[in-house]
TrEMBL record:
Gene Ontology molecular functions: diguanylate cyclase activity
NCBIfam families from the UniProt entry: GGDEF
GO biological processes: cell adhesion involved in single-species biofilm formation; negative regulation of bacterial-type flagellum-dependent cell motility
PROSITE patterns, A to Z: GGDEF
Regions crossing the membrane: 23-48, 54-76, 83-101, 107-124, 131-148, 154-172
InterPro entries assigned: Diguanylate_Cyclase, GGDEF_dom, Nucleotide_cyclase, Rev_trsase/Diguanyl_cyclase
Listed name of the protein: GGDEF domain-containing protein
Any single GO CC term annotated in Swiss-Prot or TrEMBL for this entry: plasma membrane
Pfam families for this protein: GGDEF (PF00990)
Annotated keywords: Membrane, Transmembrane, Transmembrane helix
Length: 344
């Protein structure tokens, strides 16, 4: 079986994205704590006698500090980032409103919405980030118009501060999300044949095992191996071998049912998941695969045969035991002369 460097690269990119978000969340919460602690002290003990507003601000900051501390604890202990991402976005939203109120309508206070935009579009999905950013923008404009009686020229500048960065961040987030979805899709597909790869096969088989246990239904898998495929590569070259792998993949695809799952396991091995399929039907399907290749002559490679091992899921057995038994059946097919299917 061959390792696929391009897929490994995609997996690494996906892992890097998740790791980057983890460290970003940790950095954001550490930043919140570093900023909030001295600010709370300043408002409680230095400015408290000047006005009660500073006491309310200190109380507000204490709430944000507790939220941020809990979020940091949650990330480190549970290694889950969805809830922390929403909590941090909420903290930044509240901080933005607080900055605008405490600066009493100064333009640099409104500029803090840019920081909010960067935060939410980095941490949240596009839809939720846009909703939160628009909501904050509406509150910001409400404060500017009805609370601080901002003049038209200043209001226009505030609108530019809100709309322009928001549009840029939306476009950037959209392109990033498209890239992530593309990477996730590619990580489940074998680039040569276009079939599901081993990763996706694991996911699909796990789902089918759960359904089989839940519904007490039959589940069978086939492992298909092209006989003497090394000879094909040695005789015609690897480029023809790759061409034949794509060719036989399309043959298999045209021969399975809509409910079945076909995947390239690796090299010249394929596997088929047959839900709601008991022994007799599975053997019939396996034999039809054998006949399909017996009656097919490729224009460059000629006639090629396959060996098949198959087995059905047994209640409460592990995934490894299930697949190992199918692999043993494939070994028997090869041992007994190839060009046959064996059921265990």
């Amino acid at each position: 079986m061959r390792n696929n460097n391009s897929l490994n690269g995609i997996y690494n990119q996906a892992n890097d994205i998740g790791l980057a978000k983890k460290y970003l969340l940790i950095a954001i919460n550490i930043f919140f704590i570093i900023v909030l602690v001295p600010s709370i002290f300043y408002n409680l003990f230095i400015l408290a006698d000047e006005t009660n507003n500073h006491l309310f601000l200190a109380l507000f900051e204490i709430i944000l500090l507790l939220l941020s501390s809990y979020t940091l604890f949650h990330i480190i202990k549970y290694k889950k980032y969805i809830i922390p991402a929403y909590v941090d976005s909420f903290i930044m939203f509240m901080a933005t409103i607080a900055v605008i109120l405490t600066t009493e309508g100064d333009s640099y206070g409104y500029a803090f919405t840019i920081v909010l935009g960067i935060t939410v579009y980095t941490l949240l999905n596009k839809k939720h980030a846009t909703i939160l950013y628009l909501f904050c923008s509406l509150i910001t404009l409400f404060l500017a118009i009805f609370i601080f009686n901002t003049d038209f020229e200043s209001l226009f500048n505030i609108s530019i501060i809100i709309v322009l960065p928001g549009g840029i961040l939306y476009a950037f987030n959209f392109s990033q999300q498209v890239l992530i979805e593309k990477l996730e899709g590619m990580s489940k597909i074998d680039p040569l044949t276009g079939l599901f790869n081993r990763k996706m096969y694991y996911e699909q088989l796990s789902k089918e095992i759960e359904l089989s246990q839940k519904n007490n239904s039959s589940l069978t898998i086939l492992i298909v191996d092209i006989d003497f495929f090394k000879k094909v590569n040695d005789t015609y070259g690897h480029h023809i071998g790759d061409e034949y792998l794509k060719y036989i993949s399309n043959l298999f695809l045209s021969h399975i049912r809509p409910s079945d799952t076909l995947a390239r396991w690796g090299g010249e091995e394929f596997s088929v998941i047959l839900p709601n399929t008991h022994k007799e039907i599975a053997i019939s399907i396996g034999e039809s695969f054998i006949k399909l290749l017996e009656n097919d002559i490729h224009d460059k490679v000629g006639k090629v045969t396959i060996s098949i091992g198959m087995t059905s899921y047994q209640s409460e057995e592990t995934y490894n035991d299930f697949f190992k038994r199918a692999d043993e059946a494939l070994y028997l097919s090869k041992k007994n002369g190839r060009n046959r299917c064996t059921y265990i």
